[in-house]
Write a structure and sequence with these properties.
CATH architecture: 3-Layer(aba) Sandwich
Helix content: 40-55%
Distance between the termini: 34 Å
CATH topology: Rossmann fold
Length: 198
């Protein structure tokens, strides 16, 4: 799917993500408040790259992190800004180029949730490079793993991203780019892929 079509899609489905916000926030809080072998409370700032409806951003703020959320979709950002838990979060609309308007090493952690699987390999490497540029300590992908549902397979076929290739190569791709990788399974169909930045 082209970047413009993807942006239109996410602007169009933003109201559905608004309906899912409460459930997603609770789900992500259960994950990130107790993330094994990765205590986020040791850090002070995070960039939520592709923040969508702001559910994760709310959790990171609750955990004491200064949080900035960026997304291309104005519809998604409108949903995120309306949530009372996100009053302390700064939300910024960004273009589809991979360079963000922040100085290098601006954040302790840079996280992208369900972004990498939807873009082509050359775009992913640019994403990784930008995440590495902006992070002082950790780069985290919160993404699908091999245990996908039939519905996920159908949706990802329709979206036309690089999902099936991504799932097959993500661990080798991240190890090759960052030189290290810790994988934390998130109970079913998702994992945290955590790389330290040197």
């Amino acid at each position: 799917m082209s970047a413009n079509k993807s942006l239109k899609l996410f602007n169009h489905i933003a109201p559905f993500y608004a309906l899912a916000y409460r459930w997603q926030r609770k789900h992500h809080h259960e994950i990130y408040a107790n993330l094994p072998h990765c205590d986020l409370s040791r850090y002070s700032s995070i960039l939520d790259f592709g923040c969508g409806n702001g559910a994760m951003a709310a959790v990171f703020t609750e955990l004491g992190l200064k949080t900035i959320g960026v997304d291309q979709s104005l519809g998604m950002l409108r949903v995120a800004k309306k949530q009372k838990e996100n009053q302390a979060v700064t939300f910024i609309q960004v273009g589809n180029d991979n360079r963000l308007p922040f100085a290098s090493k601006s954040f302790d952690i840079v996280l992208a949730a369900y972004v990498a699987h939807g873009i082509q390999p050359e775009q992913r490497l640019k994403l990784y490079a930008e995440m590495k540029r902006l992070s002082r300590y950790l780069v985290i992908l919160h993404e699908y793993n091999q245990n996908r549902s039939l519905l996920t397979s159908i949706v990802e076929c329709a979206e036309g991203g690089d999902y099936f290739n991504f799932i097959r190569i993500v661990q080798d791709e991240l190890k090759g780019f960052f030189g290290n990788l810790q994988v934390i399974e998130l109970g079913g169909r998702a994992s945290c892929y955590i790389c330290t930045v040197s």
